[in-house]
What does this fold into?
Amino acid sequence: MSGAPRLRVGLVGLGSMGRNHLRVISNHPQTKLAAVADLDPAALEAATAQSGAAGFADPLAMIREADVEAVVIAAPTTAHVPLALAAIERGLPVLVEKPLAATHAEALEIVDAGQANGVPVQVGHVERYNPAVLKLGELLRAGWLTSIYAIVSRRAGPFPARIRDVGVTVDLATHDADMLSWVAGERPVRAYAELAQRKHATHEDLLFGLLHFPSGATGMLDVNWLTPAKRRQLVVIGEEGMFELDYLTQKLTFTKSDLAHQQLIAGYAPTFTGDVLEVEVATHEPLKAQLDAFVQAARTGERPYVDGEDGAWAVRIANALLEAASTVRPVDLAGEASPA
It folds into this structure.
């Protein structure tokens, strides 16, 4: 495909994530940013001046009228459904930023429309393209952990003024719902959560969630908009040891279990420290890798690496966590779960 004309992409949304897409699409050797849309005149003017793309104040007009071959949607979550459906109706492959939608039912609308029209739907779970995550997957498949006991994720940072339409569970925890399912290689059969609302005017800004998987593995999510410093971390504990991953630094370590060699802290507190290996990771920008995958799916029509079904399941898990917190009881997903 190196000699193929560049894919003409339309971008909807010029918020913080939209501006990242603007940069990556504009600089990608296989894409041309042909059109942009946003309700903010100043943001739209800056984007068109920077990229030379056609500008649209009405996102639906851009999708229906612009000379584009694919669409990236980085608009607020509650706008995803009408925008994605409009692109699918026109036969345009679509990359929808996560979360795919605010509710599972809405997410399924997008998935069903894509399947009915034979249009690829990719979801922006960008962590799946993180090189440390890809390396972790390679080592798990190679058998470094013969069984997984627990998966713990922490996604925390300051409150983002940009998010008004959904809470931290749908906006951020969908990342971790997707990642924990991907690491486990299966989808959870039970969910439970506790929430808090401290700073957000209308939604929760703290989530502690628990997921139970068919294999017996347990997942824990610590997600909030209350932490003064950004943290993005994943821990996978299993039979032979523990992986620790930092999404931001793209660092991955493996600590081997070693119960035979007890050490003492300050002469009296027993501890067991296994050998720690820092795994070599060839770093790259995950957003660019995600766009690579989108170009491939748009050109070939093949199923995207992270498709609409993956995105809908992440929303389903997020909705289950919200339901569990509101009813103060676990939500059973056993009848719905299928392989991740």
Summary: The chain has two domains: 7-126+287-307, 128-285+316-332. Residues 308-327 form the longest helix (20 residues). The two ends are 30 Å apart (CA to CA). The CA atoms of residues 135 and 281 lie 7 Å apart.
